[in-house]
Write a structure and sequence with these properties.
- By secondary structure, the chain is α+β, with helices and mostly antiparallel strands.
- A five-stranded mixed β-sheet has the order 1-2-3-4-5.
- It is globular and about 35 Å long.
């Protein structure tokens, strides 16, 4: 597993595991990070890869003083289940 990458050219966060990339498409508007879509390659689904991506993404948003608006259903559910990051939702 590698560290979180913020691929600003494609407006997505990326994280590699087992030679594959999970990602989260986003839009940044002021201090608000809209998470439009989160996806893991089929081989990584069910392994927690998307959750690890969301944890790293949320920690980065917190460090940058951003609020998260989850458009993606997975991102919204993950944030609801994560007491550490629930306060970032706005």
């Amino acid at each position: 597993m590698t560290q979180l990458r913020n691929n600003t050219a494609q407006s997505r966060y990326e994280m590699d595991e087992q030679g594959m990339t999970s990602w989260a498409d986003y839009r940044l508007s002021g201090d608000r990070l809209f998470i439009d879509h989160v996806e893991a390659p089929p081989a990584l689904r069910g392994t927690g890869a998307s959750g690890r991506l969301m944890a790293a993404l949320a920690a980065d948003a917190r460090d940058r003083g951003l609020k998260i608006t989850p458009i993606c259903g997975y991102a919204a559910a993950w944030l609801r289940r994560s007491p550490e990051f629930r306060g970032l939702v706005g």
